[in-house]
Amino acid sequence: MNISLSITKNIHEWLFSIMPEGVASITEMVLIAVVYLAVFAVAGLYLVLLERKVAAWFQLRIGPNRVGWWGLLQTMADALKLVSKELTGTEKADKFLYNLAPYFVIVSALMALAVFPFTQEFQAFDINIGVLFLMAISSIGVIGILVGGWSSNNKFALIGAMRSGVQTISYELSVGLSLLTMVLITGSLQLSEIVEVQKNGWLIVQGHIPAVIAFMIYMIAGTAETNRAPFDLIEAESELGAGFHTEYSGMKFAYFFLAEFINMFIIAAIATTVFFGGWLEPSWLTSLGIAEAFPAIGVVWFVGKTLVIVFLMMWFRWTFPRLRIDQILTLEWKYLLPLNLLNLVLMALIVWLNLTIQL
Amino acid sequence: MSYFGNIAKGIKTLLTGMSITGKYFLNSRKGAITQQYPDNRETLKMFDRFRGEVVMPHDENNEHTCTGCQKCEIACPNGSIEIIWDRQVDPETGKKKKMIDQHIYHLGMCTMCGLCIEACPTDAILWAQNFENSVYDRSYLTKVLNKPGSKVKAGIED
Question: What percentage of chain A has pLDDT greater than the value 70?
Answer without folding.
Answer: 96
